[in-house]
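S.,

As promised, the magnesium ion run. Input:
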Amino acid sequence: MAGFKTLDDIGDVTGKKVLVRVDLNVPMSDGAVTDDTRIRAAMPTIRELSDKGAIVLLLAHFGRPKGAKNPTQSLSLVIDAVIDVLGHSVMFIPDCIGEGAKAGVAVLAPGDVAVMENTRFHPGEEKNDPAFADALAEVGDLYVNDAFSAAHRAHGSTEGIAHRLPAYAGRAMEAELKALDAALGNPAHPVAAVVGGAKVSTKIDVLRNLVGRVDHLIIGGGMANTFLAARGVDVGKSLCEHDLVETANAIFDSADKAGCTIHLPYDVVVAKQFAPNPPTRTVNVHEVAADEMILDVGPAAIEALGDVLKTCRTLVWNGPLGAFETPPFDTATVALARTAAALTREGSLTSVAGGGDTVAALNHAGVADDFTFVSTAGGAFLEWMEGKPLPGVDALRV
Ligand code: ADP
Ligand code: MG
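Predicted complex:
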């Protein structure tokens, strides 16, 4: 892959100690892992290195122990889940640096896999302390980063160590970088972005970055109300950040200059109460009553937005178009997601989506597998959409 070394470039790893930064920050309840998506994502890299005879040493953080040991945030709690997914034994090493780490590593054989204790038990991790990164690097021969989701942070195990050992992108990192490059780095035009969600305030930088990069910016969700208000629409009781109307106007202006078309809904679904299946009306945006809330994009706009996607070759999507958790306000999100999925299956669209609620919405629509790529990276995905440098990715560049 251009600009990065991957496992294709790593050479003979037999008997070599490979420190692999993975994401094991999994949700737990009653001592059990409730979602092992992140563990499964790391498997191709772990299996490949283990099969090639490397000694695979997994580095990860877990929770926010803030630089101190805390048994409730020990990675020993996730070891059974890692064993379940990998299908064979995995050792636990009670520290990631120093004598504790080295003694644990010394007994391992080629092909073995071990989880090392929470990197955040050391204050040097989050401070990216050079002495901590040195200590990490002493434990291994090579470094592989397979945790895109942690790459927006310049920490010892994501950034510092990459300057101290030969550094490679793992398979999950490689897939993520390729997808993000195809979506915004070097996309086929025309490019459409869908940005939705509750508030403009959480996505100002995303919108600012996108207007300079995409041909069509589709704004939905609660944040569309602020843009509608900026255009003089009375949005009634809708979620609306009236103090950001100036920001919305500035985004309209830069879109104009950049040749980016902003699409706002012209019909919407409104209700007087925000509850499952309340009485609703579908109205033109100029017909919202003072006691009504906009909770979804309307059917005419959905049809028009689908037509926009049909003219595009690339789609990047963050944020649902409506309050999709509450029926029937999932309608627009589900419909547009299905259109995007169908265009992707036909081969006319490259579609990349990310964001916690966005992933949930695509799963709810039953189309997550039909998108070209769905990122579960959360904060790192958003910072990438904001056009910010990701220290953990930059440290891997050759
Ligand atoms: P993501 O996690 O994918 O980045 P966000 O957290 O920005 O997405 O936004 C998701 C939230 O936006 C959802 O909880 C959804 O209910 C809310 N939302 C979408 N449209 C509206 C709306 N019209 N009014 C209120 N909330 C909305
Ligand atoms: Mg969210």
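The chain has a mean pLDDT of 97. Residues 328 and 356 are 20 Å apart (CA to CA).

- D.
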